Task: inverse folding
């Protein structure tokens, strides 16, 4: 293997495939990035077995100049640091002996011990299964607006992912940790597809971080994996096995109380009201009647906070309801709206919140009993 | 105690006194800030017993409006967060009952449990001892240029501080962890003073962070403490007991080898050469002769690096010398010079480095034996 490459192109490519690499992989070879140099392109692959990211750089004058094809696996941390820090516009790679790879810039020469590519697991990245095209920003939005509601506990693995269910030109994205729920509905323009899959939150998080351009993304959905294909990139993630719980009965449809409020006002009030509470137990209380909307919290040890939210508009019988400050703030932020509507059915019943237009996004939070 | 204060003034004052407060103080009252409200000023004090910082805000229209004098101690973390996050230009403080303090903004009301000021230790901040005036930027510079060479090990407490020795219109500032040494000499303009004290690195670090303006600082040096007085601030630190070792014999005065090199070139090369080395054992080697200056390092497991530093100018017999990448980089950076001179006496002898003018700052590094 021998080639010369523009530093900045390689650096960008490495930054992308690195997102799939875990430095603590139980399989040592997966702490590396596979370099597969062909006549017309360099293919870089990173994987942690669950998530695989592959990108290609095409042979082109002043970008990539291939002298001798070949393969090698190089430790992801070292190769990234070298390419980031080397003081040279172009870098040459050549295998010296076995998998010892020489990486040369203007004044720097690194000899990095690599691994043989034959030891790298074979990963099938074929574009099979149900095909679907979505805009990159649609994907980024539904990930960011639901992912925080997934569970971080491995006791029910299915809840550590976001569920995607498509049928009749619509796709529902749902995440829940059983204390709160985020639901986003997306209209599928052309396609009439049908699937019901759950993608790990960790994979979605990395995908959302990689998306930065306005472009179409091709999805290929099969039983055990999904492929996201765009812009010289292939991202493949495994799916979570098992049936996602039916949450449709959880979401109330009739409400007796309604609070309309400026998003920034309530977010700032929540932030202050949770100052005296610990990360573990950040419970705050809304006290609402015709004349007042108050957000309060108290800790016997530290003291109490009272926030006046009279800028909000409340309709309904007086109601006091306690809930997690963090869950409420996550849900409110996800609406991405200047004003929100919170609807309640009772003191111990889940409440829902959404923007003024009752849009395609719904957030549900369970209250907490306080004594 | 009752007063109204401009939020931003109080926030700035709290940010300063907070630097002396440790949230893990063995004396719980020291996790608080003492508010001492007098007719004409509010005095805020924070301390961790070693370092004490006190600042005052004067009574003034639209800054501080005193209604009823008094004292209270408020938890530093909570009061700072409240003042940072409260959405109001002015804040009123009033003691409700005992030391329960009400803190009120436009729409927010906090009731914070405080402590009685009588439980706060009495700290003597009297301006006694040898008096000295130094410019704030002189102080900031000698701290930043020496402090990194102090020891972080408690086995020899005296080495965890910077030694200041004054006599004959000169002050020497020396820090060493016995593997390297930083020495800065300062001319004292008017004063003919004499002292020999060692200030804890931790205190100096906080003092350097607080200094941000060009101004004169008054120092009051006594046997067990030093006071820094400037801009409504009094900072007092304890001194480290014991005699600082005599380091004058350590510093070589005659050299057989000399390398003159661009600071950025060698710093970048050191950075790259230490890519393959661990934090614990980041040893690099300079190989110098009439034709070449090379910086190399290698790790059997990972690989090797060779940096060509031929942009430097070397004079002397061929020499190979190994040393800590981190110690060398710290010392080079401290010169704050575009070009540096490194002078050697031999392979296993300490080497010194300084800027081109052989200025008031000298850095010494011990080499490391490699096999």
Result:
């Amino acid at each position: 293997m021998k080639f010369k490459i523009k530093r900045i192109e390689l650096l960008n490519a490495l930054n992308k495939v690195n997102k799939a690499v875990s430095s603590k992989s139980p399989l040592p070879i997966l702490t590396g990035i596979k370099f597969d140099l062909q006549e017309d392109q360099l293919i870089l692959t990173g994987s942690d077995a669950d998530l695989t990211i592959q990108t290609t750089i095409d042979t082109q004058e002043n970008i990539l100049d291939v002298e001798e094809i070949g393969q090698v696996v190089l430790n992801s941390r070292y190769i990234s640091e070298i390419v980031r820090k080397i003081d040279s516009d172009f870098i040459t790679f050549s295998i010296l002996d076995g998998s010892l790879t020489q990486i040369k810039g203007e004044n720097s020469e690194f000899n990095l011990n690599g691994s043989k590519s034959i030891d790298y697991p074979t990963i099938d990245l074929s574009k099979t299964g149900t095909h679907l095209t979505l805009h990159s920003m649609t994907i980024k939005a539904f990930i960011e607006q639901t992912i925080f509601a997934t569970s971080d506990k491995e006791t029910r693995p299915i809840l550590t992912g976001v569920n995607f269910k498509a049928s009749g030109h619509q796709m529902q994205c749902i995440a829940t940790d059983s204390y709160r729920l985020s639901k986003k509905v997306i209209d599928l323009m052309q396609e009439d597809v049908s699937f019901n899959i759950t993608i790990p939150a960790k994979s979605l998080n990395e995908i959302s971080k990689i998306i930065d351009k306005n472009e179409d993304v091709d999805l290929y959905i099969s039983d055990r994996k999904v492929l996201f294909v765009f812009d010289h990139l292939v991202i493949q993630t495994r799916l979570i096995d098992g049936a996602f719980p039916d949450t449709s009965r959880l979401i109330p449809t009739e409400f007796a109380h309604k609070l309309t409020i400026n998003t920034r006002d309530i977010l700032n009030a929540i932030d202050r009201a949770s100052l005296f509470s610990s990360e573990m137990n950040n419970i705050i209380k809304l006290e609402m009647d015709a004349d007042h909307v108050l957000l309060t919290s108290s800790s016997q040890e530290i003291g109490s906070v009272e926030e006046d939210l009279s800028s909000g508009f409340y309709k309904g019988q007086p109601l006091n309801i306690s809930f997690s400050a963090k869950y409420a703030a996550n849900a409110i932020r996800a609406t991405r709206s200047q004003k929100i509507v919170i609807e309640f059915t009772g003191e111990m019943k889940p409440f829902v919140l959404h923007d003024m237009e009752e849009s395609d996004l719904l957030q549900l939070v369970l209250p907490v009993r306080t004594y």
Observations:
- The helical segments of chain A are 7-17, 76-85, 136-146, 201-210, 263-273, 325-334.
- DSSP finds six helices and 26 strands in chain A.
- Chain A has a mean pLDDT of 95.
- The CA atoms of residues 261 and 311 of chain A lie 7 Å apart.
